[in-house]
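hey m, so remember when u said the tokens were messed up on ur end? i reran from scratch. heres the input so u can diff it against urs
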Amino acid sequence: MALNGLYPTSDFAEDQPMPHFILTTHVVHRTLPFGAFISSVIPLSSRFIFRRAAAQTLPVSTMLLRSNSTGFFVSGIIGLGITFGRMMGRDDIEWQDRSWRLLRNSGQTQLDDFSASGMALGAIVGTVQRGSLPLWRGFAGGAGLGSLAGTIAFVTWKMSSSKKEGK
């Protein structure tokens, strides 16, 4: 069963339950892979391109988990700001319409499912592989990296399946 199948949906947009929750969690969820990308590029470039001495002291996995744990929370806060900044003063029907369309868009729900699965797996792996980092850093950093991995897996899968179909 798809993760988006857990959200209640209606036949009509104006009857959509929980629109604020659905739209907010969706936008926050979509900002996480972007935050993970930036949170990965910065320490990796510091280590491998600029060869900074401070970046050479930690293992790459610890460095990525530490950076991505911060990026996880920062991008989540940015996602909240984006949602409420865009939807401030909007009527409930607009929240309902946007959340209803998200749940009815098969490509978007597939992406969300891939990303959420990657985030769950990444949180587990990050927790196990955290090394000397606190538990929360391993969990959050792994979840962020997992959301990015799930998003990349979805894009790769979509591109390869469209090439097979000749599109």
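this time it looks ok to me. Residues 47 and 56 are 6 Å apart (CA to CA). if urs says something different then somethings off w ur setup not the seq
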